[in-house]
Amino acid sequence: MLNCIDNSGATIVECIANMRMKRHARIGDRIIVVVQKSRNLGDAGPGAGPGSVTAAKVRRGDIRHAIVVRTAKKVQRKDGMVVKFDDNACALIGKNGEPIGTRINGVVGSELRDKQWSKILSLASMHV
Questions:
Q1: Residues 71-93, buried b or exposed e (16+ Cβ, 10 A)?
Q2: pTM above 0.90, yes or no
Q3: Nearest one of 29, 60, 55, 31 to 42, comparing CA atoms
Q4: Model confidence over 82-124: pLDDT tens digits?
Q5: Beta bridge partners of 32
């Protein structure tokens, strides 16, 4: 189970396949997920005015591609720094590689730059 940190409409997703064909997914890996929990259609978020309704781009049960942006497993970088996040998180993307959401909430790993996911890095508010 992973948290979905973009504004595509999903909150919790479950990984069903890793596109690398290895055992565990790392930061920057493309995975296939099933949406387990999605936001309500009427939940426009904080600061939304009365009567504002946002349509979710994904629903519960949808099968989508995603990029892992945080892992709870320790990752050692080339400069010797070890990075560990509190949770596992991902951002949903389309089959063409474009992100579904327009904003990414939270911190993402800077390993995405090495794997050519700079579009996701530009949408994120902060990267470590």
A1: beeeeeeeeeeebebeebbbbbb
A2: no
A3: 55
A4: 999 999 999 999 989 999 999 999 999 999 999 999 999 999 9
A5: 17, 65
